[in-house]
Design a protein that fits this description.
By secondary structure, this protein is of the alpha/beta class. The protein is built from seven helices and eight strands. Helix 2 links the parallel strand 3 (45-48) and strand 4.
């Protein structure tokens, strides 16, 4: 299961400082609803990006399941070094010029090497799959990470093809012979 983090605080810092916001009040409630929804599922391992918004999303689920959250650097978002975090919905609705820049070329806007980011994400998920044969694993991460891995599974050229909901769940089935398939995309019934 690939889960996008819950809604974080908006943060804008001085250039050179990395924004790493925790969850806002709504995000905390989203993380709680996610944990309550998944508490009855059989989950064998829980991983998280090292970024606060992902770790804080994973905590209620870890508590509900009695699991340790294992921090996995390869699950971090491509924008981890930016000095601001503004929810994409807010960038878009406010007409922020950074939204237009991202839509024109999100990789250039973030000054990221897309090939390196994609390789890291794919290798990370494949390593997690290989480490847990026959098990159900949760990875709490970010919209870009989820997009990249699902694009890999689908074989699509556009690695950013949808906007996952906060705490949206995507389920990928992984067979021992290397076949990967998407079982569900952007489950968010727990937010209703």
């Amino acid at each position: 299961m690939l889960i996008r983090h819950a809604r974080p605080h908006r943060v804008e810092l001085a250039a050179g400082e990395a924004a790493d916001p925790g969850l806002d009040e709504v995000g905390g409630a989203q993380a709680g609803r996610l944990a309550a929804w998944l508490a009855e599922e059989s989950i064998d391992a829980l991983y998280s990006s090292p970024l606060r918004r992902a770790l804080e999303t994973a905590k209620p689920l870890a508590d509900a399941l009695g699991l340790e959250t294992v921090v996995e650097d390869g699950l971090a978002e491509y924008d981890r070094g930016l000095s601001f975090y503004i929810p994409l919905e807010e960038l878009r609705s406010s007409g922020d010029p950074r939204w237009e820049m991202m839509m024109a070329d999100y990789w250039a806007a973030e000054k990221v090497d897309p090939a390196a980011f994609i390789e890291t994400v794919v290798m990370t998920f494949e390593r997690l799959i290989e480490s847990h044969p026959g098990e159900r694993v949760v990875a709490v991460c970010h919209g870009g990470v989820i997009n990249v891995y699902l694009a890999h599974v689908l074989g699509t050229r556009d690695s950013m093809f949808f906007l996952p909901e906060y705490t949206g769940v995507a389920r990928v089935l992984a067979s021992r012979d290397g076949v990967r398939s998407i079982r569900s995309l952007n489950e968010a019934a727990h937010l209703r």
